[in-house]
Amino acid sequence: MSHPLTCDVVVVGAGMTGAACALYAARSGLDVVVVDRGPVAGGTTGAGEGNLLVSDKAPGPELDLALLSNRLWSELAQEYGEFIEYEAKGGVVVATSPGGLTALEHLAAEQRAAGVVAEAVDGDALYSLEPHLAPGLPGAVHYPQDSQVMPALAAAHLVRASGARLLTGRTVTGVPRAPDGAVLGVRTDHGDIHAPALVNAAGTWGGEVAALAGVVLPVLPRRGFVLVTEPLPRLVHHKVYAADYVADVASDSVALQTSPVVEGTAAGPILIGASRERVGFDRSFSLPALRALAADATRLFPFLAEVHAIRSYLGFRPYMPDHLPAVGPDPRVPGLFHACGHEGAGIGLSTGTGHLIAQVLTAKTPDLDLTSFRPDRFAEETA
Predict the structure, then answer these.
(1) 304-332, pLDDT tens digit by residue?
(2) Which among 40, 225, 273, 326 could bridge 14 via Cys, Cβ 3.0 to 4.6 Å?
(3) pTM of the full predicted structure?
């Protein structure tokens, strides 16, 4: 048996958030090991669209994290843009009724006050931004800060750029702790990794990693499908979605919800989301979900009625009961840090999360107040 690995911090999870935690921790001077039971981006990251959005968030802690992340993504884009397929395409949120436009413009005014760039677009200007939209829509808001990366590429590149040691195909089976309760590292099915700090970036499985360390973290899965069309010339120029998408993101409904999110890609296919349903970890194909997505998207972009969908894929968004992630130290276990539960916004929020985790790992004051993201905020009601 070889000697156990020793490092300053072990990151569990090689998805986008784990990759960002590894990068910023390594840049802070820490020796990092990343461990994952599967490959890089094998979980939710590989099933996402790579959205870096500020447009779908109301003012509050999540928007603050999104704006910090947006700034950090812009910096990473300067360094690695071509490697991670960073595209500053901007978002267009379309109102489908006059009442919807009023509500959307009200949200945009609140977002502007919080630091978001949000430009009102009337009907005529809307069709110069997106000529193929359905006729007669009353208006929209354009969000130039919305952008996109290719998530699996971005995760792989950030892990590589971090210089962290990457151990894939290793399942974490335990979290050994000292007599005072402090983390000593992780046990895996391929040997131990010794570290005084453990970052739980296990996404939808973050609750299971927390349980190994002896704490409750109520991370829940919410299933989503994405439809992929045949390759097409560029007919959709931004990330375009209907204003009701914002309400669906915030909803607690168990039932299937779909609201159209349509975007072109550099490679040609159009991606169509977004469905949400709480069905546990059921991976079965759902024709009703895909039918609803197709109908929604065709209402926004009628030309899609003639276009073939060539495949679909699904993933599980990890969410917490109050729809905010767990980010920061767990006061119940010295040396345990959480970076999970970001729901459908994990790619966008990963850089800010990794940056904040690196700050608390190195005893710096974090750039954002982490109170709203405290991992133990549910302890009493879930115990």
Answers:
(1) 999 999 999 888 899 999 999 999 999 99
(2) 40
(3) 0.93
